[in-house]
Amino acid sequence: MTITIEEVIQKIDAWRGKPLDIQEMTGGITNENFRVNVDGQSYFVSIPGASTELLAVDRDNKYFNTMAAAAVGVGPKIVHHLPDLHVMVLEFIQGDTMTPETMAAPGMPGRLAQVLRVLHAGSRFLHDFNVFRLVEFYLHIADEQKLRIPDDYRSRMTVQRRMESAISRPVFTSVPCTNDLVAENIIDDGQNLHLIDFDYSGNNDPCSELGNACQELQYNEDQYAELCAAYFGEPRRHLLARMHLYAIMSDFIWTLWGAIQHKISQLDLDFWSYAIGRWERALGQLDSNEFPGWLEDAAREEKSYDC
Question: What confidence tier does 213 reach under pLDDT thresholds 50, 70, 90?
Answer without folding.
Answer: very high
